[in-house]
Amino acid sequence: TLVPYYIDDAMHEKRWKQTHPRAKLKITKESITISAHTAAAAGDLEALKVLEAATPGVITMLDENGWNTLHEAVRGGQIAVIKYLLKRGLDINTRTHHGEGGSALWWAKHVHGKNHKAVRFLELRGAKEIPPDDDK
What we know:
The structure is a single chain. The termini are far apart. The chain is 53% helix and 0% strand. By secondary structure, the chain is mainly α.
């Protein structure tokens, strides 16, 4: 499904579908959670803002693995989305897997290595590197 701001625009519709093959942007609680996570991971800040406007609080919803949009943005290395989500009040130290997984900084280092821009960005903002419970 196409995001609302591209309706009736064939050029943008074609491009959006090419760059978002897995996105599901239907406005239901289940699919919008997936969509917000997908938008965050892909760095699609415009789509994320549209989704948040349509369903306030969607950016804080957890997926089935206990990940929120900040975790997905970090895993995708999406600095602009990370900045936006932190400004919107997401906790920089929230852990995945319903509180038993790694923090955003742990995931950033685990996925991208200690010198990645997402790691440096999170460290400058005081993020804690908290490993998953089963990793200690």
